[in-house]
Write a structure and sequence with these properties.
seven-stranded mixed β-sheet; globular; two-stranded antiparallel ribbon; about 30% helix; about 30% strand; about 240 residues
């Protein structure tokens, strides 16, 4: 086993991303579905909107694009290296080393939460609980925009980017059910796409992106239809 855990014993999420650093951005920083998700979100937010970026990584592209759109951005990440990179690359946002499972945020304190792939190295129970926490941090009418790797697996050991990690995830159907039933969100759009990272250490991946909204009292149907406008798929929802 290499001393840094490469292709050896499983590493934690913090160890994984501390070791990858800027290489993660180089491999995954131009993910088309992620860029489209942020563009969709910012088109629906007012200037000064409060946005939480969970698993903010190097700050690029997500936090950087949100800041450019005039949002007030907070990013959290378990990796100290990622937090340092993000703070240097996106000085217009605030970043802190924190875990979504323990982050202290007020109920309804954000107009939107972005969560692109932060749940994969948790147990299923922890990931489901984290989704509920993030949904609770949304103001009424606020958006939760997420991405995951859809798979019906729990605590599986894999080698990814030359590191051994343990991962869990949900099938597409279960991930959507969690958002609708457990979190009480309106899922406006979901779609699966394939992405090939710009790094030979990572194989092509299927990605599930979802756009969801916390209903505002008395306006659920009208707000959902309005918010879904412009989403590929024609009917304003579930465009997989």
């Amino acid at each position: 086993m290499d001393d840094d855990g490469t292709k050896g014993l499983p590493v934690t999420a913090a160890e994984l991303f501390d070791g990858l650093g800027i290489d993660y951005e180089r491999a995954f920083g131009r993910l088309p579905a992620q860029l489209a998700a942020v563009e969709w979100l910012t088109a629906r937010l007012d200037a000064g909107a409060r946005v939480l970026d969970v698993g903010s990584g190097t700050g690029r592209p997500v936090a950087e694009l949100l800041v450019r759109a005039g949002c007030e951005v907070t990013g959290i990440d378990v990796s100290g290296e990622m937090v340092a990179l993000a703070a240097s690359q996106v000085p217009g946002a605030r970043f802190e080393r924190s875990d979504v499972r323990s982050f202290d945020a007020p109920e309804g304190g954000f107009d939107a939460v972005c969560a692109f792939f932060p749940l994969l190295m948790m147990s299923r129970a922890e990931a489901a609980a984290a989704l509920k926490r993030m949904a609770g941090w949304l103001a009424p009418g606020g958006f939760l925009v997420t991405a995951t790797v859809p798979a019906d697996v729990e605590d599986v050991e894999i080698v990814w980017m030359d590191r051994t990690v343990r991962v869990s995830s949900f099938s597409e159907e279960e991930y959507l059910r969690l958002q609708r039933e457990d979190c009480g969100l309106d899922v406006l759009h979901h779609a699966v796409s394939s992405f090939t990272p710009d790094d030979t250490r990572a194989a092509p991946e299927d990605h599930l992106f979802t756009y969801a909204r916390r209903p505002a009292p008395g306006t659920e149907g009208a707000e959902g239809a309005e918010a879904a406008e412009g989403v590929d798929g024609g009917d304003g929802g579930d465009g997989a």
